[in-house]
Every structure is written in structure tokens, then in C-alpha cells.
Amino acid sequence: MMSTAEVGSQVGYSTQQVRDLERLGVIPAAGRTPSGYRIYRPEHVEALRAYRGLAVAAGPVRARTLMPLLLTSPLIEAAAVVDDLHAELASERAAVVAAQKGLDLIRAEVGDVFDGSRDSMTISELATALGVRPSTLRHWEAEGLVSPDRVGTTRARHYSWQAIIAARIVAALRAGGHRIPTIAAALKRLDDYADPNHADALLTVRLQQLADRSVALLEASATVHRLIRRA
């Protein structure tokens, strides 16, 4: 049997954090001594470790919601929740890999000779090519990420090859989960959009983060399985 401070020290949580997580149902309710002090057992330590791994894999807020469900659900339902999390991570990873392939295409294209008129695109054409809405391209333009030319009396948007490459880099990084400020900083470090290596480095970091989350989810899943079997 352990005190609140002792169980927290085994997982790296403060006394208050342990109490808060117990109150939220993230760990089973502690026993009490005749004088009212909390008593924790090894299963509480395992529940805290499972929560810590789940927080890495899915985020702390979501982990606080899922842990009570996992601890009280039948094994078949708990397994389905974990399967869904693995599927989400796999989907995110697939998006990053696709983004990296897009950057490989950009590398192949920057050495080509572009014709200023034939190699430009309208906003509809570029949106279709990228699989986004025209409103998304207008938003990227408002954020200063992509700068189309304005042609004719209607001031219609036309994207030069530089703007097309910029848009593809933005699309690749957005698919990799990066936010607008991060993408803007990456674009500033590109040399006239001719070297996407920095963008590729960001995606590589993203893949490592996803790998870390996958490992954390595996560890949390094993711990939850032991807790459910014990119950």
C-alpha cells in the first residue's frame, strides 16, 4: 500500500496531480484508512502509467476522457477504442508520407524549364491539383504563404510555377500537421522555393513524433489490458 506522494513519485506526478486524476476517474478510487488517508495499490501506479502513455499518444485532454472508459469497459469495447487510436495514427502517418512524396516531386520539377504562360494555373486548376478548396488557397494568400499574380481587367488569380511550388509545399506541410506560423517560417528559409529540404526536415520530425506516439500507445494498451484482466 502507498500514500499519495509515494504513488505519484513512481510516475513523476505531484500529489495534487494524483488527486486530480483520481477525481476525474483516470485511476480507480483509492482506498481509505480508518483515519481517512488515501491508500493506493500497484494497480493505481499502472493506471497512471497507462494515462501517461495515452496522453503522449492522444493528448492529455483526450486521455482524461478515454481512461475512465477504458477502465470500466469490457475488453472488446476497450480494444475497439485502442484500435481506433492506432488507425488515427496510421492515417496521420500516411498523410505525412504522401507529403514527403510531394516534396520529392518538387525537387524533380525545380530543375525543369518553365514557360511563364503555359506553366501557370488558375485558382480552380491549382485547387483541383492540390485537392483543396479555392477558399483554402485564398486563405493561404491572405496569410502571405502563396502569392498569385493578378491578370486582366478582372484581376483573376494566376499562379506562376514559383507560386505553384509554394502552394505544394504549404499543402505538404499542412498534411503533415504543421500550423500556419511554422509553415511561414519554413517558406522564409527556402531559396526562392527551389530547395524544399527544410520543409522535408519538418516532415521527418513529424514522422518521429508519430512513431513516439505509436510506441506510447502500445505501452499504454498493454498496461490497460493488464488492468482489465485483473479486474
Automatic annotation (TrEMBL):
Highest taxon of the source?
Bacteria
The protein's matches in InterPro entries, at most eight in alphabetical order, are given as: DNA-bd_dom_put_sf (IPR009061), MerR-type_HTH_dom (IPR000551), MerR_fam (IPR047057)
Keyword vocabulary terms for this entry: DNA-binding, Repressor, Transcription, Transcription regulation
Q: Which residues form the HTH merR-type domain?
A: 1-49, 120-189
Asked if the Swiss-Prot or TrEMBL record annotates the protein with the keyword Transmembrane helix, the reply is no
Q: Name one GO molecular function term.
A: DNA binding
Q: Does the keyword Transmembrane apply?
A: no
Q: Which PROSITE patterns match?
A: HTH_MERR_2 (PS50937)
This chain belongs to which protein, by name?
DNA-binding transcriptional regulator, MerR family
Which species is listed as the source? Plantibacter cousiniae
The record lists the lineage as: Bacteria, Bacillati, Actinomycetota, Actinomycetes, Micrococcales
